[in-house]
Amino acid sequence: MKFRAHDTFFIRKGWLTKGMKNILIDPTVFVNKTNNPMDTLGLGANMVKSLRYWLQAVGLTQEPNSGQRHQTLTPFGQVIYENDKYIEEPGTLWLLHYKLASNFEDATSWYYFFNEFKLSEFTRDDFISHISNFLKEKEPEKIHSLKTLEDDYNCIINTYLPRFKSNPEKINPESNIDCPLGELQIVDISNKKAKLYRKCQPKPDTIHPLIALAIIIDNLTEQSKKSKEIKISDLQNSYNNIGKILNLDIITLTSLLYKLENSEYIKVIRTAGLDVIRLTTELDFIGCVKEYYLAING
User: On the chain, which terminus has fewer CB atoms closer than 10 Å, C or N?
Assistant: First the structure.
């Protein structure tokens, strides 16, 4: 499990593009002793460290665990860079969010917030209390700093809540300080004075069915891979699947499933009280992502 590896900096617009572009030029850009990474990337030392972390946390790049710590694009990162390197498409944002919120090892607080944190309305103290109890169960012998958990909470809020909502009086129209994932609108303010926030249902038309399919396929169990069937209740309630990761209610989830059925990627089966989907496609996760970009590009 990893906490506060972002060094309090959330993802800024343009960061991921800058990171991928420079890694393709020089895989050692973050550790190059000849060319200062701060000069190459145009960022301060702590921001360089943060960007190095974020690129891996959202699944765009990878580093070896030993030897020279160079970065390369993952297969997912390659598809994103080839099709939407400026991170502009809603589907790209949902995929990056999925990779981040399902990353238990490198982004534990994000994983917890979307998968295990059950409150729909919450304050900072609510989150800290709940995740502290979660960590005591996971690692009873380890003490996690409350300040570290608070920094993660603040970073989560800044990741998904645009500054025009949180601090409208401080907004500069030319500023790029917002995180692009704020466009997903899945976290909002319930009571600003009380610092009460809430998880929000996404607008159905912002989630392309192929993005949902990619996440479904990426979470197939060994049994589901063999049977090609998944319970709809598992899609709604299983960790890292579309219900939890995308904040979907059953109505929005069902709508997405029928869109996938109309496109002949799945079959929705409701018989004898058993509600399942049957996969009718051989696409894997990367195949779904590629299919998404083909679909939106006509």
Answer: C
Encoded tokens for 106: 């490198």
Q: What is the pTM of this model?
A: 0.94
Lookup: tokens for 99: 């990779």
Q: What is the dihedral of CA 141, 129, 100, 107, to 10 degrees?
A: -30
DSSP code for 4: S
State the amino acid at position 145 in one-letter form.
Answer: S
Quick one: tokens of 238?
Answer: 């299983």
**Read out DSSP for 272-294?**
TTEEEEEE-----HHHHHHHHHH
Q: Do 291 and 210 contact (CB within 8 A), yes or no?
A: yes
> Are the beta carbons of 20 and 55 closer than 8 angstroms?
yes
Could you read off the pLDDT of 169-190 as tens digits, one per residue?
555 544 557 999 999 999 999 9
Q: Which residues contact 211 (CB under 8 A, 6 or more apart)?
A: 91, 94, 95, 288, 292
The sheet that has 196-199: what strands, in order across it? 121-122, 196-199, 187-191
Q: How many CB atoms lie within 10 A of CB 251?
A: 9
Report residue 269 as tokens: 């089966």
What is the rounded distance in angstroms from the CA atom of residue 4 to the CA atom of residue 147? Answer: 10
Give the residue among 107, 110, 121 at the shortest CA–CA distance from 245.
Answer: 110
Q: Cα dist. 28→19, 32, 72, 273 in Å?
A: 11, 5, 9, 55
Give the model confidence (pLDDT) of 228-279 as tens digits: 999 999 999 999 999 999 999 999 999 999 999 999 999 999 987 789 999 9
